[in-house]
């Protein structure tokens, strides 16, 4: 009754970490291929990033600096709890600064600050199978990956254009990795897809409930699928961030009151703060520094 | 007219344990020829069709197909990738239940366009134009192109399934009771459509049916199966007008005259 | 005169498996030949096997014994043993058949029903339709019917479509199974004229005609089918 239970470094036992590292290595060797792994029960519910947490736990070392973001923010529940978790079970340094982190675990965003060689981006993935919604049979989708039968992926994009006049998929936009495997980039906005292409950072993807790990090694081709007459394009915003005036970044809409008041701000909180520290000011910056959650 | 068959089937057998699926079936099929396989439920005709279309591997026997380059390839020695490629380019498979052959939750246009996208077409406008053309050929109004087949009648679904199969210009189409489960008037329209398409496109087809009227209207040749074996084969009108085997006589005499 | 069709010692019976396998003999020892440019008529009472003989010649009935030699594509074919594929080729190129009844296909227009045999032989669809129009006009089928499927036509109208379909090609052998059965006098005369044209063109014709006037008008030779009766021997 004197002490709380002591955990192995980074919570998982060493055998489990080895097993997961083997899956990661295989994923790196076959970019975009979904490697099955024996996902463990974690002290958090599925959907809270158990896949990403297991990947992070398996690669993290005492000297690493960890950043955790949820939809680009360092200060939301999911990000805060995972950061606290690793602080406790691995006693590692944590940061909110993209440039200072060696490992960034993310839910649904890629930081605005360009990643560099040596950094690892760990994605939390809910559904790793991009073909799932059109072909529910796992036996069949695996065969389609194996035989490189990806016509179905374009069926989805065709449907978008037929219904909306353009490719309306805005997140989890399918990509082809190194000219071979079609991959779900996790529900990141398609705005972030170009950042995956030839990124100097290692990108790892963990799906805990689905028991799949996949990877994009540094400097790998990641091409968003499209049609010749409907080429891939990212979202554009017709106004800059209301707080830091940044342009060409991904913005979230924040509701300010019950009367339709709203503003668009950087979804990457670290990026936004950095810019404000540097003196950039958006048109709503003074009066609404901390919008209510 | 070529002097070589499109498909050569020799001593094909399929056993399920000790039970016979089909046994010792041999025939040649030439380009442009429609072969009807008739028999009652459990006669092995569907097993045969599934073996021929490589959806099922036979226990013994061979089937070779003349590829577009003129070379015969042994179907059961092909890799799965090759077989699946054949299946979505040079072959078609029309299921009795259109839901088995269609994607019910994507639009009619996408159903038709899928094969084109599967072989690498990446131009939305061209894919859509081809889909429009094929929908009209199977008598589906262009303004239904963005509707899901869930909203279609049985006859329309079946016509859509046919368009989906024919869009890549296959040379061989397998059909499993293509008019089963449809109203008589809808059947007639579908049969007529099929007959026209088969003639216009010079398709070879293997049609499994228990309906002798369907066989008579669509096919030039016929095989009658019972208990997994072919009991009689020949020209369709010869088999129907002068049935020789006891079982064929029973089948023919069981037709209701209208 | 060339002899495109030679029948020798052909026998036919039906085995009724559903009736304890009793054997119904139809004909035996059928032997005759047809020369180009002549119209032979099968004679004999109903049930003598006239229709069965025609159907064997067309591959519609199987043949128990004997040979049916036809000159086809620069060679000789025995229809009694030919493969289905060969029989189909013979039907396409060499032997035409005009039956009593028109087997109609839903939704195909009368014009296309008539043009179809030519299209199957590789003729352009429009050229085939042009010939079909000419024939249908010759047979006095009202032009307003041409675009309609013949399923709802009267017996005489269907028969005229059938005749046009049978006569449109230049098959060297033509089998006629009571083609004039339901025609009025005027159209019977047209049919007679058509048969005469075929004869002049060197076609070998073999027919069954119950109508005496037509038979008298076209016949060169009567083949008495009762000579081939097999009924008395078996059963």
UniProtKB/TrEMBL annotation, chain A:
InterPro entries xref list: PhnJ
E.C. code: 4.7.1.1
GO molecular function, one term: 4 iron, 4 sulfur cluster binding
Keyword Iron-sulfur: yes
Keywords linked to the UniProt accession: 4Fe-4S, Iron, Iron-sulfur, Lyase, Metal-binding, S-adenosyl-L-methionine
Role summary: Catalyzes the breakage of the C-P bond in alpha-D-ribose 1-methylphosphonate 5-phosphate (PRPn) forming alpha-D-ribose.
Family from the record: Belongs to the PhnJ family.
Name of the protein: Alpha-D-ribose 1-methylphosphonate 5-phosphate C-P lyase
Species per Swiss-Prot/TrEMBL record: Mesorhizobium waimense
UniProtKB/TrEMBL annotation, chain B:
SMART domains hit by this protein: AAA (SM00382)
Pfam families: ABC_tran
Superkingdom, natural source: Bacteria
GO MF annotations, alphabetized: ATP binding; ATP hydrolysis activity; lyase activity
The entry's keywords: ATP-binding, Lyase, Nucleotide-binding
Entry-linked InterPro entries: AAA+_ATPase (IPR003593), ABC_transporter-like_ATP-bd (IPR003439), ABC_transporter-like_CS (IPR017871), P-loop_NTPase (IPR027417), PhnK (IPR012700)
Record domain ABC transporter: where: 7-252
SUPFAM superfamilies in alphabetical order: P-loop containing nucleoside triphosphate hydrolases
GO biological process: organic phosphonate catabolic process
Family as reported in the entry's similarity comment: Belongs to the ABC transporter superfamily.
Protein name: Phosphonate C-P lyase system protein PhnK
Organism whose genome encodes this protein: Mesorhizobium waimense
From TrEMBL, chain C:
GO MF annotations in UniProt: ATP binding; ATP hydrolysis activity; lyase activity
ATP-binding found in the keyword field: yes
Entry keyword set: ATP-binding, Lyase, Nucleotide-binding
Residue spans crossing the bilayer: none
Entry-linked InterPro entries: AAA+_ATPase, ABC_transporter-like_ATP-bd, ABC_transporter-like_CS, CP_lyase_PhnL, P-loop_NTPase
Keyword Lyase among record annotations: yes
Domain ABC transporter: 5-233
Similarity remark: Belongs to the ABC transporter superfamily.
Cross-referenced PANTHER family: ALPHA-D-RIBOSE 1-METHYLPHOSPHONATE 5-TRIPHOSPHATE SYNTHASE SUBUNIT PHNL (PTHR42798:SF7), LIPOPROTEIN-RELEASING SYSTEM ATP-BINDING PROTEIN LOLD (PTHR42798)
Name of the protein described by the UniProt record: Phosphonate C-P lyase system protein PhnL
Organism: Mesorhizobium waimense
Gene name of this polypeptide: phnL
